[in-house]
Structures are given as C-alpha cells and as structure tokens.
Amino acid sequence: MTNTSTSPRPPIVVIAPDSFKGSLTAEEVAAAIGAGIQAAIPGAQIRLRPIADGGEGTLDALMHAGGERLAIACRNAAGQLADCPVGILKDGSAVIESAAIVGLTDAAGIAVPVEQRSTLGVGDAMLKLLDRGARHFLVGLGGSSTNDGGAGLLSALGIKLYDAAGEAVPPLPSQLHKVTRIDASGIDARIRDAKIVAMSDVNNPLCGDEGATAVFGPQKGVTPEQVGVLDHSLAHFAAVLEKELGRSACGKPGAGAAGGLGYALLMLGAEFRSGAETVADHIDLDEALAGADWLITGEGRSDAQTLHGKAPFIASQRARRAGIPTTLLSGGIDRKSLGELQASFSGCFSIVFGPGTLQDAIADAPHLLRSSAEQIARLWQTAAGAKQ
Fold this sequence. Notes:
The model is unreliable at 1-5 (pLDDT under 50). Helix 1 (26-40) packs across helix 14. The protein is of the alpha/beta class. The protein has helices at residues 26-40, 58-63, 99-102, 120-131, 151-156, 212-220, 224-245, 261-267, 275-282, 285-289, 311-321, 338-341, 358-363, 365-387; strands spanning 12-15, 45-48, 67-75, 81-89, 94-97, 136-140, 160-162, 181-183, 195-199, 271-273, 294-297, 301-302, 326-330, 332-333, 347-350.
C-alpha cells in the first residue's frame, strides 16, 4: 500500500526586530531569535530582516541589505574629530545616521553641556558624501544629543551666521540668540541638486510646548530653567533663517526631530518619511513576507509608544496586509500597555523569565532571546500540528 500522507512543510519565518539598545544590534537580535526558532523547528526557513526606525541601528539595518560601509572623519557634538560610520547602498543612496555622529551614547560628544553641542558633524558627513558623488541621502534623525536647530549642519554646508556687529556667530544653542543676519550665498551648490529623505517617527514642530526643546531637551540635559531660553533662541534663529531663504518650515511636522536637525533638513528641501517605513522598503520586507507563515519582531522595550510608528509596529502592519500573524518578542513589555499592544500583535512576550537586574538581562540577552524564541516556536509548532 502506498503511503499518501504528507507531512506539513516547515514554516517560513521572517524575523525583523529592531536593536535592543545598549545590548544588541538588530542583526544580533535577529540571529539569536533565528537560532531559537531552528532549535525547535530544525527545518524552518528563516528570513532575517533586521529593521530600524531612523535612530540608532538604522545604518546597520540598511547595510544588512548590501552596500559599502565607510568610516569618515566628522566632528562630534562637542566639535572633536572622530571616525564615524556612514554607508552607500547598492542603489547609490548615501546613509547618514545622526546617532552615529552626534548621538546620546557618545561619551566624548556629550562631555560638554547641551547648549555647547552642534550638528556640524552631520554637515561634514554630507559634504564628504557629496564629494563621493552622492546625490540621494537617507538621514536618520533619532538618538541625537543636540538641540541647535540644525545650525551646525547648515554652517558646515556653507551658511554663515552674523551678529549685529557683523561678527561671526558659532552655530551653538547658547549663541543663536545673537544672530541678526544669515548669509546663505555660500551654501554648497550641490545641495540644490540633492534629494534628501529625513527619516524619523517624530512629528513635533521646532518650537513651543510640543517643540524640540520642551519635549526632547530634558533627555539631552536641558534643565527646566533652560527650556524657555533655548526654545526662544531656536525661534529667533528660525525667523532670521526663514527671512534669508524665503521659505518656512518652523511649524512643519518633524521640524523638531533631532533637536531641530529635522528643521534644517526641511529648509534644504528634504522629504520627511517614517524611518521604519523607509527602512522596510529598502530591506525588501514585503518581499520577505511573501509566502511566509509567521513574522517575529521586537525591540528593547515595548509600550504604547511602539504603536506610534516604531519599527515593530510598522513590521506588524506590513505582515497584517500580507495576512501573516506577528509575534512581539521584546526585552521588556509594559504591562499597562499590553491591551493596546495585543491589538497589533498576535502575542506579546518578554525575554525575561523572572526577577533580575537590568545589567544581567543585558549581559545574557543573546541566550534569553534564543531560549524565548525556542519556546515560542514550540508553541507555534504545537498549534500548527493541532490544525492538521
């Protein structure tokens, strides 16, 4: 007698997590989850698509899809030269991750007070990539330590700031209130021909109660007493700049991203896009989801903010459109947000098995991810078998 029974094919699993900040890159997270899935389901077809939302890890996620990684000398937030990573994708697009140049995790850059930090280094990176022939830029805006309204970027590109006496004004938050005249005639002409995509999940304006300084300044070191002063300085700088350039962007969504770096890019004609959507397009996430059975995503900690354009949410939305269930596997889950999260994910899991310190969880993250993914995969396998 011929045995006509057939075994179900192994599942196709797409793994698209963000980084676990301070612990693992998105690529490392994806690899650990993949190992756990294959421990439980050895025949599973794994498609790794690490993702990011414009902040730390965006360059790594985009380079996972291929391209050339470079280290170029740029000024950090404190104005010191440092080798900073940038990338050129296979389609020729240049990738600049602000967090890798003027980021909050750069000890040297944040050694000076926030009112003394600038985005000059982001302009340095753009100029050097222009020299290499780049005319299409993807600029990730999350994770910056700066609050200069992008004055540093614009100065690096050739815009000059002057006070009432005609003296040059350095592009620092503490000095922007002195600016009375801006000369944009020396801006690098190649910028006019460039296409710039600013990647962020932030839609705040430059100034005001919802602006860069009030909302994001405190996490960068802005004191309550400084909020009004620095916010007023940004508004003053923007008024002078907009008069010179003959356009306005101060109130546009995203102008407040990266301490106002988003504003400067908008003034240069940048297109604002969701960082996670842009990364998802470039890593061909939709293509990876085609024919797949399951998506696993995650991040260091998930809460209600995850649903406001963060990478795991965008990945889950794409999977939902493809009719694929999504599991959220994060370092931590905010229990109060679980009700909201489970509306977008078919299951929400933390990798932490019990009480412990944050330091221990960070140190053991690869093992915790692998073990958790294995247990989730065993549950998946059991449920799949029950459907046969």
